[in-house]
Write a structure and sequence with these properties.
A hairpin with a 2-residue loop joins strand 3 and strand 4. This protein has 352 residues and is an alpha/beta fold. Helix 5 crosses helix 12. The N terminus is likely disordered.
Length: 352
């Protein structure tokens, strides 16, 4: 009886979802109690090294331990530079066709490598508005040599990487409950430090996945650092408090105008890219319009972005909040931003 009660009231924990950005490493873990999940731990760890070498991974391991994460199991995203992505046109799918093999061979042709040199996953895309005589699939993969280079430092410090995942797939997984309430076509934009990435989903299936290399917020920070003569950590504060700057202080007003101008200039090209991407998706799936954009990542909380983009794009733009995706332990929801979305999706992809 005692053993049964321990199993019934006990908790299990997901692997630690690890999203290794270029400025911060985000971590999230899920606790399952009686089958019900909640986010039990998160951490944002500033990068000290460009490389995830043994020393850097060992430091990450120490921070995770101090922040209350449980266990050594890790689920992490393949770095953007190492992920392989292709849309494949394959013959019509039949019961007897070796579809996995066909997808692998065609993916290898697209990526100009041998079929036995990578791991991959694929999913069938919804039928587009045009009548097609082929089966369209989206495939993602990672070369074994790249995977080994990612895994080796974690093995060296005793962290067990159970799964390498696509960050786009993990992001869509984290947002699945929010997207289910919407239906149709939605988009998710991750505004990261050095780059941004756009994912478009049709009924929760990823149909478009595009990196936007120059749209990260690092260049915005460099521009502001140059014009205002301050360091990046000061810019963090200035941007977050932009709407609170005093209109009675000439220095505040000048800084506010400079920040607003820099933000508008920085994101002008991104807005054009978004419009082109949305136009492409609307042409592919003419029966449904894109009317919702979810924002996540370090740049999502820039003041004024949601309002301005909603007006410019003519659609609902909203920030993804951790508490909207999954219940959180008390006191966590108010302090966590949308930058944890991918880390949560990685943790969700593991086994409880």
């Amino acid at each position: 009886m005692g053993v049964f009660l321990m199993q019934w009231i006990g908790s299990t924990y997901s692997p630690i979802g690890l999203d290794c950005g270029s400025r911060f490493i985000k971590a999230a873990q899920i606790q399952y109690t009686r089958g019900k999940p909640r986010v039990c731990a998160t951490a944002s760890i500033q990068r000290m090294s460009e490389q995830l070498d043994v020393a850097e991974v060992n430091r990450i391991s120490d921070v995770l331990y101090r922040q209350g994460f449980v266990g050594t199991r890790i689920a992490m995203a393949v770095p953007p530079a190492k992920i392989l992505t292709s849309i494949l046109e394959l013959p019509p799918r039949t019961t007897n066709s070796p579809f996995d093999q066909l997808a692998r061979v065609e993916f290898a042709r697209h990526q100009k490598c041998e079929p036995n040199t990578f791991e991959m996953s694929w999913w069938e895309l919804p039928h587009a508005s045009r009548v097609a005589k082929t089966t369209s699939v989206m495939a993602v993969g990672c070369r074994y040599t790249d995977a080994d280079a990612i895994l080796d430092p974690f093995d060296a410090v005793g962290l067990d990487v159970l799964k390498l995942d696509s960050s786009s797939v993990a992001t869509a997984r984290a947002c699945s409950n929010v997207l289910a309430r919407q239906g149709g076509i939605s988009a998710i934009l991750d505004l990261g430090w050095r780059s941004a990435s756009l994912v478009i989903l049709h009924d929760q299936t990823i149909v478009y996945d595009r990196p936007l290399g120059e749209a990260g917020i690092e260049q915005l920070y460099k521009d502001l650092s140059s014009s205002l003569g301050v360091k990046f950590d000061v810019i963090d504060v200035l941007i977050s408090q932009q709407t609170k700057l005093s209109s009675e202080n000439d220095g505040d007003m000048q800084a506010q105008r400079e920040i607003t101008r820099a933000i508008d200039n920085h994101f002008a090209m991104l807005l054009k890219d978004l419009e082109l991407s949305f136009s492409y998706a609307a042409n592919q799936y003419a029966s449904t319009n894109i009317d919702r954009l979810l924002l996540m990542g370090g740049g999502a909380s820039i003041p004024g972005l949601v309002k301005n983009w909603s007006e410019n794009l003519g659609m609902k733009v909203e920030i993804v909040h951790l508490a909207d995706l999954m219940p959180c332990v008390k006191g966590m929801a108010s302090s966590e931003r949308s930058s944890m979305t991918t880390a949560l999706g990685l943790a969700m992809g593991g086994t409880a």
